[in-house]
Each structure stands twice: as structure tokens, then as C-alpha cells.
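EI: anyone free to look at a 241-residue chain?
SC: sure, send it
EI:
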Amino acid sequence: MINADDICQDFAFGLWRLWKNRNDVVFKGIHRQPLDILEAWRKSTSEYKDSLARNADDFSQRLPKTSKATALNCTKWQKPRFGTIKINTDAAWCKDTMRMGVGWLGRDFAGLLQAAGGSGSGFCHSAAAAEASAIRYALLSCFDHGFDDIIIESDASTIIMMLKKEVLVDFSIECILSDIEVLAQKLRSVSFAFVPRKGNRAAHSVAKYAFKEGRSFSWDCIGPEFLFNLLAKDVNLSIRL
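SC: here you go
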């Protein structure tokens, strides 16, 4: 009996492999033979299916245990160095509807908001995909606002470790991570960092707002009113609305 899920997976990985090969040709000048592309497609599909078969608990036990120590040392939002914009990202995702909301905001060395935005009209298959999509969305927005020296912060520790090549990539979101890498190469300086949820409250608020409204938003340095108190608290200002 034909398995519809297997067909969809094979088709998705085939499209992703063609897109990845296209990026290699355009950005790296690498031209591969059709049989090599086909073999890489088969390998990716096989590895993805193998990863699904593994026990989720066993996989989590093999991840590095560094994120907890980092969280203890830095639970608050930290200002970036002069000349760098810190971009915080987050996502809201509903398992039942597969709908997601993504949010981001950029602040300078003084903690002042430079821009923010989000979208609540997308769909994805997992929370991890939503978190990765939030980072991709933020990077695309950086081009619109002229940010080219940035730090991307997210409270999705495993996604950050994948982008920093510290753990194996989850093949179900490899296409999104590949897009992120391509976008990052177009900017002058990009680094990725984990931040505990307490230090990512502002981005979480934007993601929830976009998810609730179900549409896209973009704000300048004035920002939306619902963000004011969170931004003030992150830089220890006593002013509140």
C-alpha cells in the first residue's frame, strides 16, 4: 500500500535538494552532477526517516548540557556592543491548527528600540520549525531596515546549537536552517546566541501579538505601546505606562 506521508516527505526533500543545489551554484560556484544530487536526495530522506525512528528521549540525552549553565549566568537581556544591533526572535505555535506567529525586535548598544515586526499568517509542522522560521523572518527584515552587523538571540537553545554547528541538524527543518545560512552570508556580520526565556520576553510578546492578530506588522523606533514596559524593564528604567 502506498504511504502518502512517505511520498510527501520524498517530494519535500527533492524540492529542498534542488533549492540547496541552486544556492551552491549561485553563491559558491559549485556545479554537481545529476546523479550526485539524486544520491544526496536519497541520503537526506533516509537520514530523516532514521531520525524519526529514534526515541526522542534518547536524542535529548545526547545533546550538550551547556545551555543550563549559560542560562544561570545570564538570565536578563544584555545590551550589545556599540555599532551592533541585537535581534531577539521568538515564535508562538498551535499544534492543533499548525498556525504560527513569529516576532522579532532590534535594539542598539543603549537598549533603544530600532525596529520590530512579526507575522501571524504562517503555518508549519512543529514548534522547532516555528522558532527557526522566526529567525529567518528576522534576517529578512534586517535587509529592509539596513542592519548588517547583528546578533541573533533566541530562547530555542537547540536551534541555536544547530546554527552554530554544535549538534546535528534536524532534517525536518534543514531547509529553513539552510535559508538562514544563505541570508546570514549576505550581511557583514552575524552571530547566533542563546538567551533564556526571561531575557527574551519582548520578542515573545511580539510573537504572541502577531499570532493573535493573524497578520503582519512592522514598527519603527517608536514601537507598539504594548512593548514599552518590557523594553523599559530590560534596561532597568522605572518609567511605566
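EI: Confidence is low (pLDDT under 50) at residues 55-73.
SC: 👍
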